[in-house]
Design goal:
The structure holds two protein chains of two kinds.
Chain A (H helix, E strand, L loop, with lengths): L4 E3 L2 E5 L4 E6 L7 E6 L6 E6 L5 E4 L2 E5 L5 E6 L8 E9 L2 E4 L3 E6 L1
Chain B lengths: L4 E3 L2 E4 L5 E6 L6 E7 L6 E7 L2 E5 L6 E5 L5 E5 L8 E8 L7 E2 L3 E5 L1
Parallel strand pairs in B: 2-11
Antiparallel strand pairs in B: 1-3, 3-8, 4-5, 4-9, 5-6, 7-8, 9-10, 9-11
The chains are: A mainly beta, B mainly beta.
Chain lengths: 109, 112
Amino acid sequence: TQLLEQSPQFLSIQEGENLTVYCNSSSVFSSLQWYRQEPGEGPVLLVTVVTGGEVKKLKRLTFQFGDARKDSSLHITAAQPGDTGLYLCALYNFNKFYFGSGTKLNVKP
Amino acid sequence: DSGVTQTPKHLITATGQRVTLRCSPRSGDLSVYWYQQSLDQGLQFLIQYYNGEERAKGNILERFSAQQFPDLHSELNLSSLELGDSALYFCASSVAPGDTQYFGPGTRLTVL
């Protein structure tokens, strides 16, 4: 059972463009984490969202937790080549972390 | 640098063999998690330990086993290896179960 669905799977854009990636579930979750993973390295936590409707900003990254706590989005403004990587969402449930399959982002200079 | 160390970084072995992957958590972290990541896939949770005790199991094959030692380091043992076991294996640690987890750099296993 896939608890988390991420879209799109792949995204290739030019430097300076904006983008949004999504993480959805059929279940309500109490909190959600977003990670970025660069090739050959482990994922690095970007943010944890906890409250329905919550918006968190991390420089050019904006994270939103849906009001119903079943979906989340990550918006990147003016993407840069350094944003290239695999973006993963994850939740903790039944003593386990469940990860989505990720969005692979490529930002071309 | 997350503070989590994993050895070895790369491992190449043959089908049918057995290997051991090692993980040292961040200082002060009592929980250790193991994950498998196949090519272009998300992370699959394998198993979690907390203070030496198994706490949760994911989709871990019977050929795989793990343990956490009194000094809190952990080992993942993979036996009767198959080609499909080739993947990146990550260890993560957190202070307590469900807390923010920090990932190690991973071990890339190639089974030929």
